[in-house]
Amino acid sequence: MTESLTDDPLVIAGDKFSSRLIMGTGGSPSLDVLGRALVASGTELTTVAMRRVDPSARGSVLDLLAAHGIGVLPNTAGCFTASEAVLTARLAAEALGTTWVKLEVIADEVTLLPDPVELLDAAEQLVAAGFTVLPYTNDDPVLARRLEQAGCAAVMPLGAPIGSGLGIRNPHNIELMVQAATVPVILDAGIGTASDAALAMELGCAAVLLATAVTKARDPELMAAAMRSAVVAGRLAYRAGRIPRRRHATPSSPPVGT
Amino acid sequence: MEIVINGTAHQLPDETSLDRAVALITDSATGIAVAVNGDVVHRVSWPRVRLAPGDRVEVLTAVQGG
Fold first, then answer.
1. Domain at B31, CATH number
2. Which chain B residues are closer than 8 Å to A61 by Cβ?
3. Interchain contact B43–A (C-beta under 8 A)
4. Is residue B8 within 8 angstroms of chain A, CB to CB?
5. CB contact, 8 Å: A28 with chain B?
6. Would you give per-residue pLDDT tens digits along chain A (258 residues)?
7. Which domains does chain A have, with CATH numbers?
8. Would the ipTM clear 0.90, i.e. be above it?
9. Closest CA to A44 of A230, A207, A235, A212
């Protein structure tokens, strides 16, 4: 090995992370299970949502993240318009003291697909307001380019719809985005199992963001460990460079001297 | 006067301050953000903001998600 993994940090807006796995916290059966899964994942950055205070709630995901030294990335989940997303990002900044935001602007509750027009509008407003914007976007290389031009710190294409576990439905588009982007491309949504995460990294993604694949797994802690290994393996394979595909066999033992 | 806090109507004395209204919902000192009629109000301003009848107050925090 020419370089160790520690020489290969994920860099977003100048901040360095040694883990290339960003975790979500949605869907976990309990804070205790979530905590063990997050530790097993090795993540250094984890998303939370902003919601009305529930006076009956016990325990706090913020306390959990703080206890494990994991950075908080608020999202704008549940927003359908640019104005809702901008207000949510401002509320998150006020509550959490971070100007980083995972920008989600969803078109409808059936597909949960990003609304590209509202997304770009919100991204432009938030960048202008000084936010570090990480937009959850469609697997559309042109939209990714527009988001990057708008000043987003990363682009985060879906592999498949949120929570679907269908993996990466259009790896060609993800590869195109990686080739064109000068900001990190982070595969966000659709991961079902470890091989999906490894594929994202082999395609050249800078990181993977996932939640459901871990929190809804039969054993979240074990799946988190699997995702951690998969992201590392995929990254190493990307850097190592895969062999070309061939239609016919090529002997791996010397053909002479038998 | 009637103030709507997180979607629920509350009867409060006239000119109630925002910090008193927030205290009805949570006593948490951190991780909370408040908007009045769609505008974020910074925590330092809560004591001097006087609510008016019909104001809509949103009190938010971070929860599991994403």
1. 3.10.20.30
2. 62-64
3. yes
4. no
5. yes
6. 555 655 899 999 999 999 999 999 988 888 999 999 999 999 999 999 999 998 887 778 999 999 999 999 999 999 999 999 999 999 999 999 999 999 999 999 999 999 999 999 999 999 999 999 999 999 999 999 999 999 999 999 999 999 999 999 999 999 999 999 999 999 999 999 999 999 999 999 999 999 999 999 999 999 999 999 999 999 999 999 999 999 999 888 888 887
7. 5-52+67-239 (3.20.20.70)
8. yes
9. A207
